[in-house]
């Protein structure tokens, strides 16, 4: 290894639903972060490691930032600000739309940033080529120091150019993580997220945000023959409990079956999944619940 080797933390930040988790997965080449068409999918900072011959990139996926309206939101914003503080390079991922200076939540933090910033315009597969140039110009005007890189995370378009801009700005340092470690999250955490992803898929617009998953038991003593997992899905109201369970248990059964299949791939083992639904009244407004459910910033 030469002294030219680069290593550092790269925070991926942006508004909800712009494709941050998709970008992390595509950059790392593993589906570590859950993604969904519904905004506010990500609730935790998640590390994804990319090893290259010339660099180790430590990507941080973060929750989409918005004006805090609940204890959960406040804790999500805190998570984002902490990730910003610890980053060597910041990638601001945006929709292919002009910047919105009226949005005070994120821009002031970006203006005060001490670290290098890169603006990545995502989802360019959705816009006509001629519309791109004025967009790039508008972001360039907002942050004259920052390169503006158009990408499509979903179609892996523009990612080499983005990587190049990031690596240029990383400090020279030896790798911080062993080559076989792809994330800082435990399997226990990742299987809980798989359940949440299936819930997001099956539930309507409002309920997904009222759902939290806790893995109460993760017994791998018989692995790889069997991993025994007991999980509780928390909702905020009795009526939501009925919806999560579904008519004749249909929804819960589908969620459980699909999540179990994905867990078996992730863990490379047979999985027995025991799923429960419980009500924790208004947990999103309860700082104690936020802590107990693992959403502390
Ligand atoms: N067309 C298109 N869709 C994309 C692209 N990247 C992501 N998406 C879609 O956008 C939606 C949101 O993606 P996520 O990766 O979950 O977005 P996020 O920014 O992590 O969202 P939060 O965690 O809620 O803040 C999903 O349906 C993705 O498939 C892209 O390059 N093109
Ligand atoms: Mg996300």
Structure description:
With 297 residues, the protein is α/β, with parallel strands linked by helices. The chain has 2 domains: 6-169, 3-Layer(aba) Sandwich (Rossmann fold), CATH 3.40.50.300; 187-292, K homology (KH) domain (GMP Synthetase, Chain A, domain 3), CATH 3.30.300.20. It is 35% helix and 22% strand. It has 9 helices and 9 strands. The protein has helices spanning 20-28, 71-86, 107-111, 129-142, 159-169, 187-202, 238-245, 250-267, 287-292; strands at residues 6-13, 46-51, 55-61, 89-94, 117-121, 148-150, 212-222, 226-235, 271-279. Strands 2-3-1-4-5-6 form a 6-stranded mixed sheet, sandwiched between helices. A 3-stranded mixed sheet has the order 7-8-9. The longest helix is centred in the C-terminal third of the chain and has 18 residues, at 250-267. The radius of gyration is 20 Å and the shape is globular. Bound molecules: guanosine-5'-triphosphate and magnesium ion. Magnesium ion binds at residues 20-21, 33, 41-42, 61.
Question: What keywords describe this structure?
Answer:
alpha/beta, Rossmann fold, binds magnesium ion, 9 strands, 6-stranded mixed sheet, 3-stranded mixed sheet, GMP Synthetase, Chain A, domain 3, 2 domains, globular, 9 helices, 297 residues, binds guanosine-5'-triphosphate
């Amino acid at each position: 290894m030469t002294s030219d080797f680069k290593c550092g933390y790269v925070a991926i930040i942006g508004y909800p639903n712009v494709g941050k988790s998709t970008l992390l997965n595509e950059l790392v080449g593993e589906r570590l972060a859950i993604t969904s068409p519904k905004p506010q999918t990500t609730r935790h900072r998640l590390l994804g490691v990319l090893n290259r011959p010339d660099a180790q990139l430590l990507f941080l996926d973060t929750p989409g930032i918005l004006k805090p309206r609940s204890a959960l939101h406040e804790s999500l914003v805190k998570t984002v600000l902490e990730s910003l503080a610890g980053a060597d390079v910041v990638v601001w991922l945006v929709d292919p739309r002009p910047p919105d200076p009226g949005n005070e939540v994120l821009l002031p933090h970006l203006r005060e940033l001490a670290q290098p910033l890169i603006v990545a315009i995502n989802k360019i597969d959705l816009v006509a080529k001629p519309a791109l140039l004025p967009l790039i110009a508008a972001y360039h005007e907002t942050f004259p120091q920052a390169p503006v890189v158009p990408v499509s995370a979903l179609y892996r378009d523009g990612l080499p150019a983005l990587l190049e801009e990031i690596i240029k700005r990383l400090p020279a340092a030896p790798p911080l993580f062993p080559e076989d470690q792809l994330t800082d999250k435990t399997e226990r955490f990742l299987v809980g997220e798989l359940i949440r992803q299936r819930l997001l898929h099956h539930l309507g617009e409002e309920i997904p945000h009222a759902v939290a998953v806790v893995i109460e038991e993760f017994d791998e003593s018989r692995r790889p023959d069997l991993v025994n997992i007991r999980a509780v899905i928390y909702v905020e109201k009795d009526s939501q409990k009925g919806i999560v369970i579904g008519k004749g248990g249909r929804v819960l059964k589908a969620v459980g079956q699909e999540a179990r299949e994905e867990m078996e791939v992730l863990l490379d083992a047979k999985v027995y999944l025991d799923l429960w639904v419980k009500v924790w009244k208004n947990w999103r407004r309860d700082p104690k619940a936020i802590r107990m459910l693992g959403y502390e910033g």
